[in-house]
């Protein structure tokens, strides 16, 4: 198996940078695994394509505005984890400006780099952590090739987003509406999408790629529903 086995042509003009007004109007391709037949639909058709005894398991993580800029605009951070409120692991750019011992100011908050891990992430200790709702921006995928705006605070979230912690949205869920969900048997788990979702596979063999880890929570109630549905 080679990473190049998964390469394909994707014209840039076919990559949407803005969402549709109606979430469930998006196009959907269905592949029948038994017959390999391909059919084309709208996402609004989704409930009609599931078997009667289905159970849909959805990720209720909520995207946080994890991208921040220093007051002078020269340093960009993306918060990847927070062991406690005053200590943040961050991706930084440019890295040469944020070596161990360097400081950064965001709003009235001052942070100092106290450690760098093997992935190049910096551990920053804050006197008072920056307010993400005031200073944070959404970290949109690079392929969208635009800066986030106010509308993304709503549209780059699923309608059932609840538990804060993701850096990126679980994008398959962006097409659901409350009306569509009301037609489906479903339950929730929480998996906070991490920074690895933005990292490309650089190894020739995909099995040698260093996969990142992500935090998740599966409640007893959800686990029980899943076990019942599988019987």
How is the topology of this model organized?
Layout: E1 27-31, E2 38-42, H1 46-49, E3 56-59, E4 61-63, E5 67-69, E6 76-84, E7 87-93, E8 103-106, E9 109-116, E10 122-126, H2 132-135, H3 152-155, E11 163-166, H4 178-181, E12 186-191, E13 216-217, H5 220-230
Parallel strand pairs: 3-12, 4-11
Antiparallel strand pairs: 1-2, 5-6, 6-7, 7-10, 8-9, 9-10, 12-13
Q: What this model shows, in words?
A:
With 231 residues, the chain is α+β, with helices and mostly antiparallel strands. The protein has two domains: 3-63 and 139-230, QueA-like; 67-135, Thrombin, subunit H (Beta Barrel), CATH 2.40.10. It has helices at 46-49, 132-135, 152-155, 178-181, 220-230; strands at 27-31, 38-42, 56-59, 61-63, 67-69, 76-84, 87-93, 103-106, 109-116, 122-126, 163-166, 186-191, 216-217. The strands form four sheets. It has a six-stranded antiparallel beta sheet, with no helix packed on it. Strand 5 (67-69) and strand 6 form a beta hairpin. The mean pLDDT is 94.
